Amino acid sequence: ETIPSLIMSRRGLSLDEKRRRMLEYFWEKKEVFSLKELERYLPKAKGIVPMSIKDVLQSLVDDDLVDRDKIGAGNYFWAYPSKALRIRQNKLDKVKEQHEQSKEKTLSLTNKKRSLEVGREETDDRKVKMARLSELHDQKAELDQKLTKFSQKNPEKFKELGERTDVCLQAANRWTDNVFNFLSFAKKRRPDLSEPKLYKYFEIPDDFDYVEI
Length: 213
Known about the structure:
The chain is built from 8 helices and 3 strands, in the order ααβααββαααα. It is mostly helical and 213 residues long. Among the domains are: 15-79, Winged helix-like DNA-binding domain superfamily/Winged helix DNA-binding domain (Arc Repressor Mutant, subunit A), CATH 1.10.10.10; 159-202. The termini are far apart. InterPro entries: LZ3wCH, Mnd1, Mnd1_HTH, WH_DNA-bd_sf. Pfam families: LZ3wCH, Mnd1.
């Protein structure tokens, strides 16, 4: 065994490197080989250890880089550069096609996003209304807690809290009415948009509804 092949064997080759060297051997020789012949020639010619040759060869056959045919009782293998070039070109063409499709999809989504934004700008007025609605809901929750705490201790307090709760409830539901009216208006403007998409776009909770006690 030559010194270069000994160095290659001791260093250890990755699977990709073994595949590359095996293909090179086929392309250089342009001959048909049996497995036994490859196990005899490749260690010295390309530094591939015999015990790995069968697995490497099978991986190349699986990827259609090496052809195989059964003749009599044995299998024979061969490969030519022209086929590998054709396979690489087909892969390149496929990648280019996928790239073009991705560009078209990105452009389509960008245009769709722009069209959806028309008439749905995040205005200061909407921010104020949503903040006020949230504040009213929080106030009602706080009043409900106080009402529970004092309901059995102070009838007058209970009455007062009940009245305040009603005021807050009516105010909260008026804001809820405003939100539903806005959603109805948006649906009329863009009937192609489903209700879930509108809720998501305007950051409205799925369980958003009138407040009941």
